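Bug report (template v2)

What were you trying to do?
Predict the complex of my protein with zinc ion.

What happened?
Run completed; filing so the output is reviewed.

Input:
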Amino acid sequence: MTDNGNPLLQDWQTPYQLPPFQQIQCEHFAPAFAVLFEQHLAEIDALAENQATPTFANTVAAFDAAGATIDRVRLTFENLCASESPAALQAVEREMAPLLAAHDSKVAMHAGFFARLDAVHQQAAVLDLSEEQQRLLQRMHTDFVRTGAKLQGFDRERFAAIASRLADLQTQFAQNILADESSYQLPLTSEVDLAGLPDFLRQSARSAAKERGLEGYVITLSRSLVQPFLTWSTRRDLRETAWCAWTSRGENPARDNRPIAREILMLRQEQAHLLGYENFADYALADRMAGSASAVHALLSQVWEPAKASVEQERQALAAQAAALGEPADIEPWDWYYLAEKVRVARYELDDAQVKPYFSLDAMLAAMFDCAERLFKLQFVEQTSVSLYHPDVRLWEVRRGAEQVGIFLGDNYARPNKQGGAWMHVYRKQRRHGGKVTPIVVNNNNFARTDDGPTLLSFDDVRTLFHEFGHGLHGLLSDVNYGRLSGTNVPQDYVELPSQLMENWATVPEVLAKHARHVSTGEPIPAELIERIRASQTFNQGFQTVAYTSSALIDMALHLRNDLDGIDIARFEVAERERLGVPREVGMRHRLPHFGHIFSGGYYAAGYYVYMWAEVLEADAFDAFEEAGNAFDPALADKLHRYVYSAGDSREQGSAFRAFRGRDPRAEPMLRKRGLLRTE
Ligand SMILES: [Zn+2]
């Protein structure tokens, strides 16, 4: 193999074997992948053609180790496409997407290799394997079966054709939403139209106008513009206009998502049938911690009635607020955000100008590292001499005493070439088999950089910082033998446990008293301000819970349905809302024609519930620390480390949770946290 000077194909003689960012150019990726695809397939062909009897070592462990070279380039590519992606790299990303998918499909449908894997699997019971090896064998076999490896003849071809058609339809669905969002504009032409809007929103509306070559201000249908507009605009008529446009995304006759969604649903059902499941929900749930649709319903139904009761109380408070403002008492969906904000400000007297000076980014980084040291004995030591892909990015060596555990990168600022939102990813995942490999983890946020002085965060930003750090620790503390079982590679309804759990430490009074210090005076945050921040966390939770849970219930109902012929998802949604008794003034978090979570890809299909599932685990797990009366209880921290943060997918999640908590999870702590636990 010749590398033609392509740095992606060479040995990385860099600090920590990081990618050689300074040498990598966009045009290096396509030729590198061409070589690496072949190399990876050759590795698997060799495993398949092995004449020796299939064993765990020559088949299962060997497959897990194959592909380390392609992984390192693929992870670099994914990270750069998300964090630092100029137009040229975006073009490469579009060009590579179908090629990467085709490669994955060749691996997943490799008949020769699967025959050997299946042979090992059939002997699983009599093989002398460790618990982790058994787990790897089961997970790997399941992965192959679920992507159609067992199918023969026509079924096999049909399954592959469906997968490819689904990829097209899902992309189309997402692009239609994007087109609806970017083509819409609500111009605000005079001071009267801007009534109530805070400065930051005026600035964003002005930038949105400029981007479109317009004078003045416009509101588009991007969530970051329309949601604040609905929160602050005092113009009820304009709120109604914006609301109606926002909630009818995906129904534009020129690019109607309803027939696309119908075809997606029918194809998913056919896929499920081919694999022997009654419907798509059964297929999706079989590979999650919940295990069945009835387990999901059991959880959601515990939340549903108390949440509706809370909405009624919240509605009354909003109606009183409307009366005080001289607004009509019959609250419409476009009034809820606006009135709720007025009630929130009056009730908790929290405004950003008062709160933010206590939460500088540097102080909060120190706070989260301090928590990781007290819980998991980790030290984060910053190294400033390594050049990365952008000067914003910081690097910490993560140590436990003399041992180097991994590398942590923090990329915290918004940039034009960076995706929105916050996420964690890896450049290298932890494993031990075949030589110890330590993880390289990155956390991304999109905080606004301030030119003068330190970056100040809202309390929501602080939670986000801790959330991503929780995913980061899940990657860093991973301590397993095999890559397939490493770090965050766990079922969707479990992966948010380590992250949501970490958010709790951001509200621990002793953490805030130590680290949340006023940026100019150094004074610790007043205890009563901490109390108000903590109290405000349950505000409006009836509304939030109903909006979320109605979407989760409708997602399940849709994917459990067997009769999909001619289904109109918009009508289905109306009928389901009626049946569930969703209060009319609460809009759904996502209406079906633009429910990208479930139609722009398959990951959250029959899976929008996963956030709440993980929240049950998280709230119950943190409750153990509250019961102990110590947020850093050493014995609990030790179990949390062993059974949750370091375990990856090396044991079944229910059993891992029981090992930590001593029993099955209970929903009460989650209900209490949301303010939904009523004593009759
Ligand atoms: Zn997360």
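What did the reviewer find?
The radius of gyration is 26 Å. The chain is about 55% helix and 5% strand.
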